[in-house]
Specification:
The chain is mainly α. The chain has helices at 31-46, 55-74, 92-111, 115-126; strands at 80-81, 89-90, 133-135, 141-143. It has a domain at 17-115.
């Protein structure tokens, strides 16, 4: 499992944030996690998805993804291992991999790193219903007649 180019992100609140500086990765991250940070942070900042409040969330995501890739490499030898009592058993790395995958899905979704999360974020960014507006599926607001 490797990382390809980051998918384009939906703009946050309709504003470009490309003039904002991209924060450096935390020094506590591994080399692989820092590489993931640098790949993702630029796009997240440009689309208003990375603020000072989000840095820890991104750091956790980058750390989990780096460990997921490491676990994936460990699985290249196979999912089954011999044990004393049973002829074969699923390797414990498989459980670690599945837990890291679930963690990455949650953290990545919170950051808008999945297509589904971006579509949900686009709906909330494009439509802030007021007392006389309702959200419609395409993300636009529709005025409701006042009674």
């Amino acid at each position: 499992m490797g990382g390809g180019p980051a998918a384009p992100l939906s703009p946050g609140r309709g504003r470009s944030h490309s003039h904002e500086p991209v924060p450096p990765p935390p020094k506590e991250l591994s080399r692989t996690a820092r590489s993931i940070w640098r790949r993702l942070a630029r796009g997240l900042v440009a689309h208003g998805r990375l603020t000072a409040l989000d840095r820890d969330q991104l750091a956790l995501y980058c750390d989990a993804l780096a460990k997921l890739w490491e676990a994936s490499e460990s699985l290249d030898v196979g999912l089954l291992v011999p044990v004393r009592r049973d002829p074969v058993r699923t390797t414990p790395v498989w459980k670690v991999y599945r837990e890291l995958l679930a963690t990455c899905r949650v953290l990545g979704g919170d950051l808008g790193l999945t297509p589904g999360a971006r579509s949900r974020l686009a709906l909330t960014d494009g439509c802030v219903p007021g007392p006389s507006a309702t959200a419609v599926p395409n993300g636009r607001s529709s005025t409701v007649p006042q009674e």
